[in-house]
Amino acid sequence: MPVYNKLVRDKIPEIIENAGKIPHTRILDNDECLTELDRKLDEECAEFHKDKNVEELADIMEVVYALSEAIGSSPEELECVRKDKAKKRGGFEKKIFLERVDD
Fold first, then answer.
1. What pLDDT sits at residue 2?
2. What number of other Cβ atoms are within 10 A of residue 46's Cβ?
3. How far apart are CA 29 and CA 40, in angstroms?
4. 9-17: which pairs have CB atoms within 8 A and are 24 or more residues apart?
5. Contact between residue 60 and residue 93 where contact means Cβ atoms under 8 Å apart
6. Are 7 and 33 contacting, i.e. CB atoms less than 8 angstroms apart?
7. Over pLDDT 90: what percentage of the chain?
């Protein structure tokens, strides 16, 4: 019997049941959820580093949206902050790599 001990998407228990298995789950409190979302972000980033595909990027975004809500924000507010920072500091379109700054 595999032990996972990790945060999973909401429909995973249903998918497991549909496969004829019995999932054992519990609901996390807010602090636990934030900790597990942080761990999940590391997991999803590692998968992106390995596979470099849009599926893994979508997983990262899902976790980022959940993190935003977990800290009392919203995906819309997050996007607003992102756009504001991009307006003030730019994005990464030009692929600029800063090597050093001399005094």
1. 87
2. 11
3. 16
4. 9/62
5. no
6. yes
7. 98
User: Cα–Cα distance between 44 and 13 in angstroms, integer?
Assistant: 19
Contacts of 62 (CB under 8 A, 6+ apart): 9
Task: Tell me the domain boundaries of the chain.
Answer: 27-89
Residue 67, both tokens: 């993190």
Q: What does the DSSP assignment read for 49-73?
A: HHH--HHHHHHHHHHHHHHHHHTT-
Provide the CA 2 distance to its chain's centre, in angstroms: 24
Q: For the whole model, what pTM was predicted?
A: 0.88
Distance of CA 85 to the CA centre of its chain: 20
What are the φ/ψ torsions at residue 35 (nearest 5 degrees)?
-60, -45
Mean of pLDDT values over 47-75: 97
